[in-house]
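Exercise 3.2. Students should predict the tertiary structure of the chain below and write it as structure tokens, then compare their answer with the key that follows.

Predict this chain's 3D structure.
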Amino acid sequence: MYAIYEHCHSERKKIRSYDHIPTDEEIGKAIVEYLSGLGYKSYYTRRWTTPNGEIWIDYGSWSTFLVVAKEGENADEIHPDEVLQ
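Answer key:
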């Protein structure tokens, strides 16, 4: 299982779950829906993949990011090849 989390001040809140690795299109749609719910319009996004395979997404907030990561016990053992690059 994979999820998109809101990451703010070292705390994570799940905003969407998937039973598969989400595609770029699914990630983009989730970002638009999430930001729309906040009443926020982003004029850019940038993203990077960490060594443990998490995808971090900066959408213009100074303190909050979105993170695509594995759910569950082994969430920190995600392999970069499992995640969209």
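Discussion points: Residues 24 and 84 are 8 Å apart (CA to CA). Residues 2-82 form one domain.
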